[in-house]
Every structure is written in structure tokens, then in C-alpha cells.
Design goal:
mainly alpha, two-stranded parallel ribbon, two-stranded antiparallel ribbon, 14 helices, 6 strands, disordered C terminus, Raf1_HTH, coiled coil
Length: 341
């Protein structure tokens, strides 16, 4: 008879706790089902969508691929992904800050389409966006616009009118997105409808006042009246042309850009000696220029805002600044535990 093995000892000052397996993510109803029965649940959509959605993840852990699951259940890979992600978003809403009765709004088969659009928001933003979705009875397209505006809003700090809108208000974030969109219109007549859409969803009084002021100014401009510029517009940074690339453009680009650097103290002669043209051999990666030069800037180029340069007494620039915007990449749908705020 072998002697009994004593339990492992814990480090001094710590209590030993034996290993416990993680809780089963499957609802109790489905935990004891065999493989055939689980596939049948997915094939027949038996139960609520958020209850059988974890079955997809359990099958993936057992070696099933989206294609094999689709073959066995008729559920496409797109639907599988939507259900898994939506169920994760739904689970993240379960907290003291979100009433349980509101979760039932998403029990229908349209629920995954709505919750799926909130996947890129953090936990706090999801709660705010979900409440706004229910209050406004938004469809998936409207939820997508709302989620994008809430994610984009913090990045617009310092832009014109930003301070008047509240980042904690879903309506204000959406209103500001439409407010910004109205400023991209060339004709004043085209700005007014977008501003009116912004006014429809705005929630705070400061934001409402800012939108109403913009509508009033747009109407006057459309009528040919002279409108005095706001102080914020005078101090605003110079407009930067935006170049929007098409899908596939420069996606595999490997061309090196070298810029000649001239100090102000070098004088006009140094500027004249700087290379004007360059050509890159795409195969060999060699950059050829029309003149020899000793000082180059490669890699990262720091561009200062025009407002900062004006404060330093610099009123002229040697080049035009252009913002190049690539098409958005397909972001992963997996929701991680460490969510950004």
C-alpha cells in the first residue's frame, strides 16, 4: 500500500487553494448533450439564440471549423460569427448599471444584428449605446452609425465645436458626427439637412445650442447674407486636404520616401542645391535623385500644426500638408477581456 501523498504546500503567508476547472460556458440545458444533439440544436435553432450560441464555440474547441459546422447545421460562417460575438456583447451588458429587463429587447432573432454592431465599444459605451438603441428603436444600420460615432468622438478632441458635445451622451456623439459631416458639404444648401439630422438626436443643451447656431449661419449663407466668422473658426487649424485611397491601393507598398532637409540658416543657395526629383527602383529598392545631397530625412517626419507655427512667427510653409486616409481594415470580432476606455 502506497503512502498517501500530502497536499502541496503554499508559500508562506498564502493559503493553498486546489485547482478548480473554469465554469462551463454552456447553459445548463445543453451541458449534457452529446455531439449529435448539439448539432441538432444549432440546425433547428432550438431555444433562444444567446443560449445556443456558446455551442458554436464549444464545437470549435473540439476541432470543428466554420465550414464543417455549416455543413452539419446549415448555419453559415457569417451567422456563426455574428451569434458568437453578439452573445459576448450581451454577456458584457449584464451588470448593475444595466437593467435586466432591457436585455429581453434583444431576445428576438433580430437581437444579434443589433448587438453585433456594438462589438468595438468598451463596456461603458455599450451600456449607453444599448439604452439609446432601445429608446430610439434603431435598426442595425442605425446602431452601426451610432457605434462608429461613439468610438470616433474622443479622437476629435480639439476640432471645431467638439467642446459643446458630451462624450458620455450617445445622442451627442451621433449628433457631432453629423455636425462634422455637414461641414464637408460644398454648398450651404446641402449642409442644412445634415444639421437638421444632427438636431434630431442631440441630447444636451450646449450641443443643441451649437447645432442651432450652425443651422442659422448656414441659412444666412445660403441666402447670400454675410456671416461673421466665429472666434473658434478664426483660431482653428488650417484645413488639410484629405486623399481617400481605394481598396487595394498601396496595400503592399514598399517604396522608400526620402526628403531633403534644409536649415533656415543655410540660405537660398542650399535650397537651390536640394534635389527636386527622385526615382525608386521597385525591384532593387534603390532611390535615385537628380542631385547629390548630404542631409536627408527618412523614416518618420514630424509635421507641426499650422497654429503652433503661427505662434512662433512662421507664416509660410515649404510644402502642402495632405492627410492620406486608407480604407478601414477588417477588424477582429473577438472581444477581449482588457477593454480600452
Amino acid at each position: 500500500m502506497l503512502p498517501r501523498t500530502p497536499p502541496p504546500t503554499a508559500p508562506p503567508g498564502q493559503l493553498y487553494q486546489p485547482f478548480h476547472p473554469p465554469p462551463n460556458p454552456l447553459p445548463e440545458t445543453y451541458r449534457n448533450l452529446d455531439l449529435t444533439e448539439r448539432l441538432a440544436v444549432l440546425r433547428d435553432r432550438m431555444g433562444r439564440w444567446y443560449e445556443y450560441a456558446p455551442l458554436i464555440s464549444s464545437l470549435s474547441r473540439e476541432g470543428f471549423t466554420p465550414a464543417s459546422i455549416e455543413e452539419a447545421t446549415g448555419m453559415s460562417g457569417v451567422e456563426q460569427n455574428r451569434l458568437v460575438v453578439a452573445s459576448q456583447v450581451r454577456d458584457s451588458l449584464i451588470s448593475d448599471d444595466f437593467p435586466d429587463d432591457l436585455l429581453h429587447y434583444f431576445d428576438s432573432y433580430g437581437g444579434p444584428d443589433l448587438l453585433y454592431e456594438l462589438r468595438f465599444l468598451n463596456a461603458r459605451q455599450r451600456i449607453v449605446a444599448t439604452k439609446h438603441t432601445i429608446e430610439r428603436r434603431l435598426e442595425s444600420k442605425g446602431v452601426r452609425e451610432l457605434a462608429r460615432s461613439m468610438k470616433d468622438f474622443p479622437q476629435r478632441r480639439g476640432d471645431e465645436g467638439w467642446d459643446a458635445f458630451d462624450r458620455h451622451s450617445a445622442g451627442d456623439c451621433l449628433a457631432y458626427a453629423r455636425f462634422r459631416l455637414s461641414r464637408e458639404a460644398i454648398a450651404n444648401e446641402d449642409r442644412i439637412p445634415e444639421l437638421e439630422r444632427s438636431l434630431d438626436v442631440v441630447e444636451t443643451e450646449s450641443a443643441r445650442a451649437r447645432v442651432e447656431l450652425e443651422i442659422e449661419r448656414a441659412i444666412k449663407k445660403a441666402a447670400g447674407e454675410e456671416v461673421e466668422e466665429l472666434e473658434a473658426e478664426i483660431d482653428a487649424r488650417p484645413a488639410v486636404p484629405v486623399v481617400r485611397l481605394m481598396y487595394g491601393e498601396i496595400s503592399e507598398a514598399s517604396i522608400v520616401l526620402l526628403l531633403p532637409v534644409v536649415k533656415e540658416t543655410d540660405g537660398v543657395k542650399a535650397v537651390d542645391l536640394a534635389p527636386r526629383r527622385s526615382q525608386t527602383d521597385a525591384d532593387l529598392g534603390i532611390v535615385e535623385v537628380d542631385k547629390g545631397w548630404a542631409r536627408w530625412a527618412g523614416g518618420k517626419l514630424v509635421v507641426e500644426r499650422g497654429k503652433k507655427l503661427l505662434e512662433e512667427g512662421i507664416s509660410q510653409a515649404a510644402a502642402e500638408v495632405v492627410t492620406v486616409v486608407r480604407p478601414p481594415k477588417d477588424e477582429e470580432d473577438i472581444i477581449v477581456g482588457d477593454e480600452w476606455d
